[in-house]
Amino acid sequence: MLSKLSLFWFENRKAYFGFFGSQLTHINYLPPLTVLFLAIILATLSFDGLNETFFWFKIININPLEFHGRSSVIFQNSIGLLAFAIFLFFIFLLTIYLGHKFIYEKIEFNKIIGINSIALLPIAIAYHIAHYLTTFLVNIQYFYKVLSDPFNNGSNYFGTGNIHVTTSFFNSIETVRIIWLIQAFAIVFGHVIAVLLAHSISEKYLKSKSSLLISQFPISIFMICYTFLGLWILSTPSVG
Amino acid sequence: MKKNSKSNLSRRKLMKSIAAVGSISAMPGFVNYSQASSSAPIRIGFQVHRTGIGAAYGRWYDRTTQAAVKIINDSGGINGRPLEIISEDDGTDPKRGAEALEKFANQHNCDVAFGTLFSHVVIGSAPRAGELKLPYFVVSEGHHVASGMLNRYTLQPGITDVKSQVQAMAPFVKDNLGKKVTMVYPDFAFGHDHRDYFSAAFESQGGEIIAKVPIPPTESSFSKYFPKIPRDTEVLYHVMVGPAVLTFVKELGEFYGSKGPKLFGFIDSVEAVDLNTPGLEFLDGSYFWEGNPRYAQDNQTVHDQFYRTAVGVDKNGASVSDPKDVSTYAHMFGCWETLHIIKKGMEVSGYSDVKDRSKLIEAVESMNNMPLSQAHPQGAKIFNGKTHQTFGHQYITKMTNGKLVLAHTTSIEDTFYPDEVDYTKQSF
Questions:
Q1: Residue B84 in contact with partner chain A when CB distance is under 8 A
Q2: Nearest residue of chain B to residue A56 (CA atoms)
Q3: Does residue B415 sit at the A interface (CB-CB below 8 Å)?
Q4: Phi and psi dihedrals of A196, rounded to 5?
Q5: In this predicted model, what pLDDT tens digit does every residue of B20-50 receive, in sequence order?
Q6: Least confident of A3-12, A61-70, A117-126, B143-152
Q7: Which of A36, B76, B339, B420 suits a disulfide with B68, CB 3.0-4.6 Å?
């Protein structure tokens, strides 16, 4: 499904090039439960960030400065993840429902809800990039190091076995600023794509411009709020 | 179609094969197990904070450990056997810590376990070490070992504990900084230890704690707490930790300007943090406890020089491969020293395999004086075999133009307190 966001794709033995998500505008139907699937994907990513924030630790009443590790919060985080996924599922249903409630055109909710949920896909990718960028920056160094000694027998094939993994880029304002800008750009860009995609999908089945604009209003508000949530998660004090 | 191979194996052929195996093992050059075991590596299970809230410490504990192992192996290993480190990530998580010990004992066949920093991991793991009868050498600086809450298999011979560190600060603070102290600390066990140990030691010296200001652990803004600091405070003792430390220092600077009380803190607040980070300027002129001075001092010993070079730390306490990668210099020496103590304990006890684990513990328990040396670059130590805790010099440095300059070295005696346990009375 993520491949549908590619800039290049093949269809009927022809190569195509288009903006992120262009392929998705050709999809006419997806089952309603796609909403649940995509809500779970997005919720997993967002919650994986949220569960490390001091805000979440306050909710579950655990001191983040003497955090007893992940095995001490399996229950709380499982409940939190489930609740967040269900919340996201219903809030998305609600925004789509409200958007189509006050238009004159007759729409069958069951038929359009699945396809509307595709708009969540670019946000999921954006979160993936933003949230795991810092982990990537550390673990790629371990990978680089291990590459020289894949069998742990003391070999040093590429001369990278003796490098020391560093995290100093988290301690200087200049590098943190660059990391933050990349993360913020990914999140904002993901949401912009999502809004464009939602608009483009609706154009397929809504005829009048007023219907189109009204149908997009609640989802746009939701996207703005979710952008704020994403940026806040990245900037708020967190554990680990 | 092939016949069943079983039918091809006659009794005569089987006997011939057995005889052949016997003759090979009798040939010169064939090393049987009993001979191999004498040159097999000593396996040390290293419980390391690779992930979780202790990861910054874990990276440097790992680096120091690898450096110590190289030095020990290059000089002949332990009783002629090389040292092998088996690392397991404990996730800075007590449950995973205990699981790591089980793996060391049951899967990796480790001789001993070694690590780790965070107290809750040690407290969560030590009972399992006792059950597994696995010697567990910790580098945690928590008071839990000497307090008697652990067991005979858990020892802390390579790093001093927080109780001795804190109480040793009292004479210097009273004689040099002031007699009226206000303590600002995070409102949980770590802060409470400082509150209790320091106030007891300081008051017994004739000083006065005029206010105690606990800060909730999840607090992110501190200005509202500063009015609680009495105006006649001469010394502000602070031990804030976590991501809000920079904000704390910045707001403190804004609150006091240049007219504040003298500041005394523990390096734990800014361990692995570059002191030239914007916002930390206000700390210039303030004093810090350091387990081992981060910056190479004018009176640097040859042993610190050797240790620093071996680990790959420059004179500013940062990695030689990345000057912005600041080490956890105040704590990580404990790994180096502990490994050297394990080596000495194994050599003295004539350790050969896991059946000698109790002999190893008894050998370490009988250690006492550990002089300043390549094995103990942080300084001389006195190990208390009854409490399984080491005692040593503490360093007080003053931040001067962005560097920490040594102002005082405590005596080892300053760190002593009455024994709270005698582990040697516990059976193995």
A1: no
A2: B218
A3: no
A4: -60, -40
A5: 444 444 444 443 334 445 789 999 999 999 9
A6: A3-12
A7: B339
Give B-chain residues touching A167 at CB under 8 angstroms.
55-56, 59, 325
Domains, chain B, with CATH or none = 37-160+331-392 (3.40.50.2300), 163-290+397-406 (3.40.50.2300)
- B220 in contact with A, Cβ within 8 Å: yes
Q: In the structure encoding, which two tokens stand for residue B92, read together?
A: 């800075």
| Cα–Cα dist A51/A76, whole Å | 9
Partner-chain residue, chosen from A57, A69, A168, that has the shortest CB–CB distance to B91? A69
Cβ–Cβ contacts within 10 Å for residue B5, how many?
A: 7
Pairwise CA distance, residues A69 & B297, whole Å: 37
pLDDT at B276: 87
Indicate the DSSP class of residue B231. Answer: T
C-beta atoms of A63 and B324 within 8 A: no
Greater model confidence, A18 or A41 = A41
- Point out the least confidently predicted range of A108-117, B88-97, B110-119, B358-367: A108-117
CA-based nearest residue to B38, from B360, B361, B353, B357:
B353
Closest alpha carbon to A187 in A120, A125, A118? A125
- What pLDDT is stored for residue B12 in this prediction? 52
Contact A101, B122 (CB under 8 A): no
Query: Chain B residues with CB inside 8 Å of A173's CB?
Result: 277-278
Smallest CA–CA distance, residue B97 to chain A, in Å, is: 10
Q: In the prediction, which pLDDT does B259 show?
A: 85
- Is B317 part of the contact surface with chain A (CB cutoff 8 Å)? no
Tokens, residue A120:
């969540």
Q: CA-nearest residue of chain B to A68?
A: B93
CB contact (8 A) between residue B322 and residue A164:
yes
CB contact under 8 A, B53 and A240: yes
